[in-house]
Model the fold of this input.
Amino acid sequence: MRDLDPRTVNLRTLPIQIGRRGFVLNALFVQNNFRHAVKDKGVSHDTMEDRRQYIYRAFHYLEHNDIKSFKLDPRSLGDRHVRFLFADMERRAKAGELGPSAIQKAHSYLHTFSGWIDKPWLVLPIGAYISDETLYRRSYVTKHSKAWDDNGVVPDEVIAAVAEFDERVAVQIELMKEFGLRCKEAVMFRPHQDIVTAAQAGKAAAGAAEYLQLRRGTKGGRLRYVPVVTPTQLAAIEHARRVAPGENDSLSDPRYQLVRAIRHQRYVMELFGLTKAMLGVTAHGLRHGYAAERYEAEAGVAPPVATDERADAAVDLAARRLVSESLGHSRGQITSVYLGSSRARR
Done:
């Protein structure tokens, strides 16, 4: 096995052997993990790492659980092993330890892996393993606002308090609030480089004069533009430029590599109670708040999750499209997660 190279070894002809299961699993990742499951393109490093960690955990569980140990060459993964994994997921879901999104992600990763071992038929729809749909069906319509303000947390007060401890993280939170940035996007944002004019963004001159140009840290590296329209947004940009004064500086602490900078951001937010368990809010709630403000600015009424008043159908649809574009979502339906039901007054 020392002479085998995981990059070039032919796993279709290499004999099945339990003793080299670690080598085979590594080779499968080296040869396949950079690929998209369906499309002819690559995937982000985050997806690669998340997928790698899940598959390794799955095989570790198969071998080291307290019920029945399966020690196998990864290419021997079969129906009984997949059913064993989903039985554990069902148990954990019923105990409230696992949500629908985690189950769907695990299903997706196992299905992708089955293609790597030439068994694309192996993983069945989730309903073949878990009978209770409520355990794995995600709802795309929120019934309760996750915005900080609506949950008794005032963003500006939090930002001011965090600034006393770590101004870089405070600015990251401020940009999440003002522009709906994701955590990683805020860490990687360059306040001097990542601001462009409407013409540079290919936007109509009648709209905003400037836009955030976001690609660094976005999901799948997808480019999007977020308009700069309010005084508080302008103030947030100026604050960011003071904290990161260099032309190419990002808001990431220069002492840290990216992974550690993101971990540090999470640490600071936990330190200030910004978790579901403590204050009842998370960083993602700032995207919800931004979505609500953007929707109200366009539709003239608060989103359905916050009020019984409804915008006309055409106005509602147009506002949702703008929100979806600003948040970086390709599916319009996802706005219901942030705004509530799209059923509008006609």
In short: The mean pLDDT is 90. Residues 252 and 296 are 32 Å apart (CA to CA). The chain has two domains: 18-135, 149-339.
